[in-house]
Design goal:
Elements lengths: L2 H23 L3 E7 L10 E7 L2 E9 L3 H6 L3 H17 L7 E9 L5 E8 L2
Length: 123
């Protein structure tokens, strides 16, 4: 892995930590972080799975210079992969049985301020 890739990985992990802290402070319970499927399965990685009351949110985290760029960087292919992985997670996790499922995007800008788009897309 190159130095550029390592720096991006560190920024991403730090942005996820900021988002997890913000979610916990606002009453969300973290069910999973960096949830990965087997390579070649066609399922995507889910950055954060969080639950509050009867809602389970599958959250994609993006760290960019500004929030608009972060939100634009979630591609249609990523959304499809995340949705497939979320479906598998929900089927296997009893906590999701009676819950509404939602897909959110959280972005962290250069000032390290998180912003959340709830219900960012529907599969």
């Amino acid at each position: 892995m190159t130095a550029v890739h390592l720096a991006a990985e560190r920024r991403g992990r730090f942005a996820e930590a900021i988002c997890v802290a913000w979610l916990r402070l606002t009453g969300w319970r973290i069910l999973a972080r960096r949830l990965k499927s087997k390579a070649g399965s066609g399922l995507g990685e889910i950055d954060i799975v969080a639950k509050r009351r009867r809602v389970v949110a599958f959250i994609e985290v993006k760290a960019r210079a500004d929030h608009a760029r972060a939100q634009e960087s979630v591609t249609a292919l990523q959304r499809q992969r995340i949705a497939r992985a979320a479906h598998v997670f929900a089927e296997r996790n009893a906590l999701c049985a009676e819950c509404d499922l939602r897909f959110d995007v959280m972005s962290v800008d250069r000032h390290l301020w998180p912003r959340r788009i709830t219900d960012a897309w529907r599969p």
